[in-house]
Hints:
The chain is mainly alpha-helical. It is 77% helix and 3% strand. Helix 3 packs antiparallel against helix 4, helix 3 packs across helix 10 and helix 9 runs antiparallel to helix 10. The relative contact order is 0.14. The N terminus is likely disordered. This is Olfactory receptor.
Amino acid sequence: MAAANTSSVAEFILVGLTDQPQLQIPLFFLFLGFYIVTMVGNLGLITVIGLNSHLHIPMYFFLFNLSFIDFSYSTTLTPKMLVGFVLRKNIISYAGCMTQFFFFCFFVFSESYILSAMAYDRYVAICKPLLYSVTMSPQVCSYLLSGVYGMGIFGAVAHMGNLQFISFCADNIINHYMCDIIPLLELSCNSSYINLLVVFIVVTIGIGVPIVTIFISYGFILSSILHISSKEGRSKAFSTCTSHIIVVSLFFGSGAFMYLKPPSSLPLDQGKVSSVFYTAVVPMFNPLIYSLRNKDVKIALKKTLSRKKFS
């Protein structure tokens, strides 16, 4: 019955980030710049890690996948967002909306769990350095990565399953620049407390569990760093974590602000600004943060560029 009701909505209209005409073109060029930097930064980091064998260790294995996820989910959302700045009416088909939403959920959940896997990697490296090569063996890294993408599939399927039990009425205008669960539920004529509860539970699993894992990992890491006798040793240990801490703070901070609050307490326009942060700004900053703050990446980048120049 629900499937029949939802199929009567052939398309949605995306309101976009703002309805002020004078801001459309400046915002188009701003986010086009963000997207270009995101593409170049993440593809560049993927290339550098792939071409330099000394970076083929667990830390950069996870960073490689983080860059792939950032590249993918930015591509899932940003091009459609850019179209919305130049068209008077930004239309997306029902199938297109559901497809965008599915991949958005998949990559956001995957990013949450890849960040927690990276925190676990730092925990093992700092707290159990003598057991690092055994604990973080290629097989273990493969299992962790399978879990990362497995949770991505879980998040996408759970949210999509939740949408199958709602029907959409006459209004098909989504007050957002993308298809997301909260604005879609606002359009439904039969969504209930249960639907919102499912959203909260699924998002808690997607954001809450990785945050707890990261906090526990860094609790042990901080304890180990404080037991290092030399100031230089403490500084070196902490410097290996700073890039990850910055990325985690940006991603989970904006995500929690958007989803881990009752919908009534957060106006959707403010939610859109928060969404911009973790869908457009964070994927752009991640490769910059890791490139600028990581000596190994900078050395590998110089080698790669000099190799191409010599060729």
